[in-house]
Amino acid sequence: MLWLDGAHAGSNPIPRSRLPSIDNPYCAISTYLFPDFSEQATSMLDRNGRPVILMSSRLLAADPNYGHFLMAHECCHHTLGHVLRFAGLGQLGPQPFYYIRPALRNMELDADSCAVRMLKATREPDAIEAGRRKMLSFGPLPTGAYYPTGIERAENIAKNAAQE
Fold first, then answer.
1. pLDDT, tens digit, for every residue of 48-79?
2. Domain map of the chain by residue range?
3. Alpha-helical runs (H) found in the chain
4. From CA 90, how far away is CA 42, in angstroms rounded?
5. How much is the pLDDT for 13?
6. Residue whose C-alpha is closest to residue 62's, from 8, 2, 130, 1
7. For the chain: N or C, fewer Cβ within 10 A?
8. In terms of pTM, does the model score above 0.70?
9. Cα dihedral sign for 162, 74, 50, 146?
10. 111: which residues sit within 8 A by CB, 6+ positions away?
């Protein structure tokens, strides 16, 4: 069973068999879709300590290229060790973010850079550009709690996309 806190899908365990999932082309981590997910996507550990990715199915349907950027980005949070590093805090909600805020900026930029490398390897420039455009839409505002600004992330994505 996948355990989600109240910020995501209620306080009850949800049987995995009831969750729609997709094959994530960027990692072997179970990726589950929620139509009414309040976030775009997130990486976490389930109740048994297994890595999972949760994603908005509506976002994926509305903008598949940006959805692919997000899937790669969330895979990177797992493969770079970000999720395990802060697993003792439980699901990262607003309060635990306070304790890890010094690391959040770099973790987001690192996950974006890693996602660009993955998408370059799979020859998906449209997904990279969709990620850059989405971040740019935030302008000078942070893209999340204690995250870098949209401009910082868009510039980071563009810089990594331009590298050979």
1. 889 999 999 999 999 999 999 999 999 999 99
2. 16-162
3. 57-62, 64-79, 82-85, 94-121, 125-136, 150-162
4. 13
5. 45
6. 130
7. C
8. yes
9. positive
10. 73, 74, 76, 77, 80, 82
